[in-house]
Design goal:
It is a single chain. By secondary structure, this protein is mostly helical. The chain is built from 3 helices and no strands. It has 2 domains: 50 residues; 35 residues. The radius of gyration is 30 Å and the shape is elongated. The mean pLDDT is 90.
Length: 102
């Protein structure tokens, strides 16, 4: 039973100087052109992923100006819920004798 091709073929073009440089590197490192370009893409992809996470980290820093941590979350939730409950009671929409929600 024949098996399908496990890779895809791409045709690329580049300036002659760059092609000569790529061929030189492949020969110098005893690699095929395919191996050289696969490694080049892996390196490029790793840099792009790292850049994305660096940018997201910088953005995240701007989204937490108070420096809250994960340990702060339960306390903050209780504080917000208590404030919302107090606002509802002040507006008369909730009976003050109602047990607090968990």
């Amino acid at each position: 039973m024949p098996t399908g091709r496990r890779s895809r073929v791409f045709t690329i073009s580049m300036p002659p100087e760059m092609a000569a440089s790529a061929e030189y590197l492949a020969k110098l490192e005893n690699r095929s052109m395919s191996e050289l370009f696969r490694e080049a893409f892996r390196s490029y992809n790793e840099r792009q992923v790292a850049r994305f996470f660096d940018e997201m980290g910088e953005y995240a820093k701007t989204r937490n100006p108070h420096g809250y941590t994960e340990e702060d979350v339960p306390r903050l939730v209780k504080e917000v819920r208590a404030a919302m409950r107090a606002e509802r009671e002040a507006a008369g929409t909730v009976s003050p004798t109602r047990p607090p929600s968990p």
